[in-house]
Design brief:
- The complex is a heterodimer of chains A (96) and B (310).
- Chain A is elongated and about 65 Å long.
- The longest helix of chain A is centred in the middle third of the chain and has 12 residues.
- Chain A is built from 2 helices and 3 strands.
- Chain B has 310 residues and is mostly helical.
- Chain B has a single domain, classed as Ferritin, core subunit, four-helix bundle (Ferritin, Up-down Bundle), CATH 1.20.1260.
- Chain B has 13 helices and 2 strands; from the N terminus they run H-H-H-H-H-H-H-H-H-H-E-E-H-H-H.
- A two-stranded antiparallel sheet of chain B has the order 1-2.
- In chain B, helix 2 runs antiparallel to helix 4, helix 6 runs antiparallel to helix 7 and helix 7 packs antiparallel against helix 8.
- The longest helix of chain B has 29 residues.
- Chain B is globular, with a radius of gyration of 21 Å.
- Chain B starts with a helix and ends with a helix.
- The mean pLDDT of chain B is 94.
- Classes of the chains: A alpha+beta (96), B mainly alpha (310).
- Chains A and B meet through strand 2 and helix 1 of A and helix 4, helix 7 and helix 13 of B.
């Protein structure tokens, strides 16, 4: 039986001891989720990098398109009132 | 199309890293697959010369260190294959090409490890040369490659330091140990200098790679940096550089060194080095002999997946 390339690509996310969130650290190939997790442990946490690992098959990830960049991210630029620095506070008001 | 190329050129000029989904010229993609793929192969083939001494390491400490190091090399191969795959290359396909001799790996791993001191020389000189090369690649224009390099450089500095320490112990040991250390330096000095590739006027891929900022420094610049870094280290532990022409130039602040044996370099690249055949054979045996295990894992995974659905 030909099983060439049947090992899936997995993306690996690790949360470090002090880290608040999981961070993408790389990818690997594995036949199934369990082995992906074990290999991620061996490859990406050899030097105390983290205490929690997520692995997810790359094919399950949908990402934004680079050529849509401007349309996609523009709305955040024309809503400056979303930022606290937009508001003027007189001198002398503290702790705000 | 022209707009895409313009955008790409602008990104390169402004040092905005190129990412997997960005448009890139075909030749850029191809040359990166070649370079990253061969870099990955070098990590994998590089496990063999050192692996040769795992069962014979002289103390439990050195043996544990060597095991950790070879484990790192496997991880480095993995990071790099992943980076190559973001460009659309296929890992199994790259392995087939390596075994068929259609993709290269670093010339250095075609040299045999004849004594324990050779393992130390590899850590110190070979990984030292790799670091000079790879630190420069941490700012390469393709994002996934640059990020892999950052990870790898952190780990390589462990490799280099342990190699230097092992060599220093030998150089400070018995006369026999010191001789063994010197012999290893004699054997690996020139091959380490060859790791930086052909000289600038004979390097066909360089101009384009520099323009695309895949390479940030020329082969000769990096080689000079390595020599400047390393000669004082050799002298400091009481060993000699096997080059009668080596001398420090007060004016330039650099070491001048003798001519590399380019005939040897090209012979090794063409597959006529001391261990080319042996290395590829070992890879082929492992790949073909392990096929049934890979197939078993794949079939088991399919079975588990069906169970989950049912």
């Amino acid at each position: 039986m030909e099983n060439k390339n049947n090992w899936s690509l997995y993306e690996v996310f690790v949360r470090s001891k002090q880290g608040l969130s999981h961070r993408h650290v790389g990818s690997l190939r594995a036949p199934d989720d369990e082995i992906a997790l074990q290999n991620a442990r061996d490859v990406y946490t050899r030097r105390n990098e983290g205490i929690s690992i997520w692995v997810v098959k790359s094919e399950l990830i949908t990402s934004s398109q680079p050529d849509e960049k401007s349309e996609f991210f523009d709305p955040s630029l024309d809503k400056v009132y979303r930022h606290p620095t937009f508001y003027h506070i007189p001198d002398g008001i503290e702790h705000m | 199309m022209d707009i895409q190329l313009e955008h790409f050129d602008k990104s390169i000029q402004q040092d905005i890293s190129i990412e997997p989904k960005d448009w890139m010229p075909d030749a850029y993609r191809k040359t990166l697959i070649r370079q990253i793929g061969q870099h990955a192969h070098s990590e994998v083939v590089g496990m063999l010369p050192e692996g040769n001494w795992i069962t014979r390491a002289p103390s439990l400490k050195r043996k544990a260190v060597l095991l950790a190091k070879v484990q790192d090399e496997a991880g480095h191969g993995l990071y790099l294959y992943s980076a190559a795959e973001t460009l659309g290359a296929d890992r199994d396909d790259m392995m087939d090409k390596l075994i068929a001799g259609k993709m290269k790996y670093s010339s250095i791993f075609n040299y045999p490890t004849l004594t324990w001191a050779d393992v130390a020389a590899i850590g110190w000189l070979v990984d030292g040369a790799a670091i000079v090369n790879q630190v420069a690649l941490c700012r390469t224009s393709y994002g996934p490659y640059a990020r892999a390099m950052v990870r790898i450089c952190k780990e390589e500095s462990f490799h280099q330091r342990q190699g230097f320490e092992a060599m220093m112990m030998l150089a400070n040991g018995t006369p026999e140990q010191k001789q063994m250390a010197q012999d290893a330096v004699n054997r690996f000095w020139w091959p380490a200098l060859m790791m930086f590739g052909p000289s600038d006027d004979h390097s066909p891929n360089s101009a384009q790679s520099m323009a695309w900022k895949i390479k940030r420094f020329s082969n000769d610049e990096l080689r000079q940096k390595f020599v400047d870094n390393t000669v004082p280290q050799v002298l400091q532990i009481g060993l000699q550089v096997p080059d009668p022409d080596i001398r420090f130039n007060e004016e330039t602040g650099h070491y001048e060194f003798g001519e590399i044996n380019w005939d040897e370099f090209y012979a090794v690249l063409k597959g006529q080095g001391p261990c080319n055949h042996e290395r590829i054979e070992a890879r082929r045996k492992a790949w073909e002999g392990g096929k049934w295990v890979r197939d078993a894992a794949a079939v088991f995974a399919q079975k588990q997946a069906r169970k989950k659905v049912a």
